Amino acid sequence: MRIEPLANFPIERDLVVDLSHFIESLEAIKPYIIGNEAPPLDGKPHPSAELAKSRTKQTPAQLEKYRTFSMCINCGLCYAACPQFGLNPEFLGPAAITMAHRYNLDNRDRGKVQRMPLLNGKNGVWSCTFVGYCSEVCPKHVDPASAINQGKVESAKDYVISMLNQKAKGRKCQ
């Protein structure tokens, strides 16, 4: 058996590596449910309170859409295996993109609009060259490569929709 530090991370000492970029990438994509508006301070139910309550419920089918991606334990093995992260340390990386995709698929989350600029950006999903090593080494079989490819589809849809919205706004202004 051979024990060595995780590849693609700066070595601090012995087996200890600097995970600061890994943590920063995870924090940047907001790996938590961004919910509906906060409850009113006066204690009176807001007109959309019933709607907000219904958005917290989830069917087994809704859970199944993202369940596999939620199994990530943030071990960093996907980053160590990723040749793109080795070449471009600014790449968001497999785990961060997978977590973003997991929350974007969650019916209770309203944060997709906040995450898409990062996923669409220079170091987002399009930086992945799809080697697939990230999925091969995942101890929880999360399949980050699949999340990244699905993220590319969502990114393309997001781009087309934004272009159509800009075109529609241009017509209204004329």
UniProtKB/TrEMBL annotation:
Cofactors (names): [4Fe-4S] cluster
Domain of life: Bacteria
Domain spans labelled 4Fe-4S ferredoxin-type: 63-92
GO molecular function: 2 iron, 2 sulfur cluster binding; 4 iron, 4 sulfur cluster binding; metal ion binding; succinate dehydrogenase (quinone) activity
EC number(s) per entry: 1.3.99.1
GO BP terms, alphabetized: anaerobic respiration; tricarboxylic acid cycle
Catalytic activity: a quinone + succinate = fumarate + a quinol
Keyword Cell division: no
Any single Pfam family the record assigns to this protein: Fer4_10
Record keywords, A-Z: 2Fe-2S, 4Fe-4S, Electron transport, Iron, Iron-sulfur, Metal-binding, Oxidoreductase, Transport
NCBIfam families: dhsB (TIGR00384)
Protein name: Fumarate reductase iron-sulfur subunit
The organism's taxonomic lineage, starting at the top: Bacteria, Pseudomonadati, Pseudomonadota, Gammaproteobacteria, Pasteurellales
Gene assigned in the entry: frdB_1
